[in-house]
Amino acid sequence: MLVALTSGARFVKGLLQSASSRYQKLSLIGKALIWFILFFYLCSAAIIVVVTPARIAQFTYDFAQDIRHLPYGYTILIIIMIAVSFPPFIGHTTLLNLFGFTYGLRGFFPAAFGSLAGSAIVFVTLRIMFSKRLRSWTSTNEKWQALEAVIRSRGMPLIILIRVSSFPPWAWSNSLFASIAPVSLFQFFMATWFTLPKVIVYVFVGSRIARLSDGEQRNHMDTQTKIVNGLLVVGGISISVLASSLVYHLMQKEIKRLHDSPSERDELAAEALEAAEEAPLLGSDSLSSP
Predict the structure, then answer these.
(1) CA atoms of 181 and 61, how far apart (whole Å)
(2) What global pTM score does this model have?
(3) pLDDT at 237 over 90
C-alpha cells in the first residue's frame, strides 16, 4: 500500500512538473488559451452547482440515449475519437467514458477501434506531412539520435513501456512516436494494443456512471445497489490511477537505469525521454513549416 501511495505521489509530481515545463514554453497565445480553458472549466463547475448535478446527469444520460438510438451513432463518437487523437486536442479519456456511458460494456469495441484507428491515422499523417522536418531535426540533435539508437537496440519492450505510460498524454504520445524514426507503424500499432486494458476500465466506469445518472434507474435501485455501483466507479478509477502510477514508476526506473549506464548514448537517451515535449513534432512551432 505504501509503495502504491509513493508511486502515486511521484506520478502527480511528474504530472505537475511536465505541465509547468510545457506552460513555460508556450507562446503568449498558447498561455492565453490555457487560461481560457481554465476559465471555461470554472464556469462549467459553477453551472453544475447552480443547475444541480442530478439534472445535468439526467440531461447527459438522455442525450447519450439519443446517440445510442441513431443508426450509426457509434460512428459519430469514433470520428470524434480520431479527431482528438491529434495534438493539441485532449479528451480521449472522457470519450472512453462516454462510450461506456452510451453503450455500456458493448462500447468497448467501438472505443477500442477508435483508439487504434485514431492513433494509427495520426502516426501516418504526421510521418507523411513532416518527414523532411523530422529528418532535418534528428540529424542535428544528439539526444534524439541516442534515443533512436536505444529504441533500435531495446525494441518492442521499451516501445510498449513508453506507449502505456501516462506521459505524454494520448494525443501527444501519438505525435511522440511519429517523431521517432526507428519506430515502424506496425510496432506502434502493436504497442497500442497494450493500452486496451485501460480502455475497458474507462468504458466500464462510464457504464456504471450511466446507471447512476438516470433518475428512473436510480429510483428502482435499493441503497445497497447504489452503494455497489458507486464503489465500482471508485474502484475502476482507483485501478486506473494505480496502474498509471505503476507504469510511471517503471518508466522512471528505466530512465534512471539509462542515466546510470556507463554508455554516453544511454545517458543522452534518458535526457531525451525526460524532455519528450521537445520532440520535433511536439514543439510549439511544429506546425509552422513542413
Answers:
(1) 44
(2) 0.70
(3) no
* Cα distance between residue 201 and residue 233, in whole Å: 10
Q: What share of the chain is helix, strand, coil (3-state, %, to 5)?
A: 80, 0, 20
Task: Please tell me whether the peptide bond between 88 and the residue prior to it is cis, using omega within 30 degrees of 0.
Answer: yes
Least confident of 85-94, 95-104, 185-194, 250-259: 250-259
Under the banding of pLDDT at 50, 70 and 90, the label for residue 227 is confident
Contacts 24+ apart (CB under 8 A), 51-56: 54/215
Residue 282 contacts residue 276 (beta carbons within 8 Å): yes
> CA distances (Å), 153 to each of 17, 167, 183, in order?
29, 22, 11
Amino acid at 176: L
Q: In the 3-class helix/strand/coil scheme, how is 81-110 assigned residue by residue?
A: HHHHCCCCCCCHHHHHHHHHHHHHHHHHHH
Distances (CA, A) of 59 to 53, 64, 206: 10, 9, 15
Is the predicted pLDDT of residue 289 greater than 80, yes or no? no
Grid coordinates representing 154 are: 531495446
Secondary structure (DSSP) of 230-260: HHHHHHHHHHHHHHHHHHHHHHHHHHHHHHH
Q: Tens digits of per-residue pLDDT, 210-222?
A: 887 777 776 667 6
pLDDT at 150 over 60: yes
Q: Residue 248 in contact with residue 10, Cβ under 8 Å?
A: yes
ω into 169 cis (within 30 of 0): no
Contacts of 221 (CB under 8 A, 6+ apart): 211, 229
Q: Measuring CA to CA, how many Å separate 204 from each of 37, 105, 114, 177, 201? A: 28, 6, 16, 28, 5
Task: Indicate if the pLDDT at residue 77 is higher than 70.
Answer: yes
